[in-house]
Structures are given as C-alpha cells and as structure tokens.
Amino acid sequence: MADEARSDDVLQRAHDDDSLSDEAREVVLAACRGLAPGDPLNAAMTRLDATVEMLARRRAAALATPAVDEVDEAASALRTAAGAQFDAERAAGVLSADRIQFLETSLEFRDRHGTQPCPVCDQGTLDDQWVVRARAALAAEKDATGAMRSARSGVHRARQRLTGLVRGVEAPPAEDAGLTTIVAARVAYQAFSAFPADDDVAYAEHVTAALPALRTAYDALRAEAASRVGEAGADEAASLESAREAQEWLRLEASSARP
C-alpha cells in the first residue's frame, strides 16, 4: 500500500524537512516511534491527534480572566479621562493652535515696530495695554492647549491599561477537544474582545458589560478541561502550536502517499 511505503521513510523525511520546526519535528518522531516499517501513517496520526486534543484541553484548563474589580477600576479611569478630555478640548477649541501662532506673531510685530495701529482692523492700537492683554490671552491659550494635551495623554494611558486587560485574555483553543463548553466560551470571548474602537466611554461600558458572561463561560470550560486533561496518553512535553504544526505536516505526508 502507498501509505505503508510512506511510513517506511517518514522519519527520515521529518529529519530532512527544513520547513518543520525543531519542536514539531520531535512531536512527529514521538508519534512515529515504535512503528514497524509496514505500519500505516494513520497509527501515527491517531497518536498525534490525541496529543493535540490533550494539549488543547490543557490550554483550556489554564485560561484566565481579569478580576472584576481590576476591570471596573480601569474602565472607570477611562471614563473619567474621556470626560476630562472632552472638557479640555471644548475649552481649548479647534483654533487654539492658530490663535497662539497669531498672538505670538502679533507680539513679535509689535516688539519690532513699536506702537502701531492694528494692521488687521485699523481701529485699535498695538500699545502697552494691548501687549498686556495679548500676553494674557496667549498665556490662557497655551494653558488650555497644555490641558488638552495632558487630558489626551491621560486617555491614552487609561485606554492602554484597559486594553492590556482585554488583550491579556487568551482565546479558547481552536480544537473542540471533546469539550462541550468550548463553543460557549468562544462566543463569550468574541463578544468580549469585539470592542468599539472609536468611543472610549462605549469601550469601557462594553468591557464591563461583557466580562461577567466571559468569566462564567471560562469557569465552565476550565472545570471541564481540567477534569479531562489526563485522558490522552500523549507527548506532554510539546506545545500546542508545535503539535498543530506536526499534525498538519503528517496529514500532508499521509495525503501525498495516497494513490
């Protein structure tokens, strides 16, 4: 049979294939270890499938969610920072930078040329009193702009803190691994991680609202996975990613060996 012929040299091919990572190669070798030259590859595939399932269960059993208090604190900080940014931007206005440039240029003009009629309106005079008012206005504009920049920086830091908690939640494994609770966990994860990108207040509200369902689903998945981690007698030294790579490689080998 074609797949029996393939099983005779699969170990050598695994050694020689540079596209296979070292860790995945070790997984393939472990799956094929003990096979007689005439054994079909499906025996190794059965072992490797068991390895992937066991590692997926282990991954699921280790899934973690952030504490409610930690998320609530981060979300509250983001809402507060977003409110401060709104107030600061309203105070500064969209023309603040242009007003600052205009006032600075006007004061430089007056410094160079002394008291002059206003070249803009031709009504007022750029005298000493005008200088006092212009400098006060310039200082106020700079204060407002500085407050706006500080508020935006505060929002950025608060958003990063909350996003770190969200992104710290790992998705459930792609493999079902015989776990009945894994689909609900995936749905909860998708809902939790699909947050609004352009509204900080909505972002904070979304995360706090979606967290309870995520925690409930992950608790159920962890409990089920932990109860079944030891079912498969497979290579426990491998990572799930390397086992997946080895599984795909061996499937391609088996497929190419078919007539």
What does this structure look like?
- The chain is mostly helical and 259 residues long.
- Among the domains are: 2-62 and 232-257, no CATH class; 74-155, no CATH class.
- The chain has helices at residues 2-16, 22-32, 41-61, 68-92, 96-113, 128-167, 182-193, 200-228, 240-257.
- The longest helix has 40 residues, at 128-167.
- The protein starts with a helix and ends with a helix.
Overall structural class, as computed from helix and strand content, comes to mainly alpha
Low-confidence stretches: 1-5
Helix amount:
over 70%
Proportion of strand residues: under 5%
Order of helical and strand elements: HHHHHHHHH
- Please give the number of β-strands: 0
Determine the oligomeric state from the structure: single chain
State the end-to-end distance. Answer: 9 Å
The profile of the biggest β sheet is: none
C-alpha geometry: elongated
- Mean pLDDT level: 84
* Rg calc: 32 Å
Count of individual helical segments: 9
